[in-house]
Amino acid sequence: MRLIKRILVAFLVIILALVGVSYLLPGKAEVSRSITIDAPAAIIFPYVNSMQETEKWSPWLSRDPETKLSYSGPDAGVGNTLNWSSDNPQVGTGSQEIIESTPDQSVKTALDFGPMGTATATFALQSEGAGTQVTWGFVSELGMNPMSRWMGLMMDNWVGGDYERGLENLKALVEG
């Protein structure tokens, strides 16, 4: 009986330590990737300023060709919205709406993953010689949930590769 009590106390101490440490972890998860595309920003911008156009280079849609997509609002710019639904857990269900758009410079979107939370994504276009550096960023506020904070540490590993593939797809589309 004494051994079981010690094991339970040790288990409780470990749990409390993990929860306590979680509040020392970053309160937001950030991911960012960049690529240089051999084209001016004016050629690239339409592909990041329209949810319909992102369908052409998205790194996620190839995971589930049966993903259901619907669009609302204008065809491009602020208010352009994508809703998606997939049974594949790597694609999931959610929505993305363009909330800021500066022609040939930047686009900001609001992401809603339902119970998985919300985030913002950005595209920044910066002239670089004859080409354009495109930076795709992601930020999610993690709140005070200890589990979210621990998971935030892994966000770069989970999303970074997808961002790299997406940017490579965009580069091939624009340059091809």
UniProtKB/TrEMBL annotation:
Entry coiled-coil feature ranges: none
SUPFAM superfamilies: Bet v1-like (SSF55961)
Pfam families for this protein: Polyketide_cyc2
Source organism: Ruegeria conchae
Full protein name: Polyketide cyclase/dehydrase/lipid transport protein
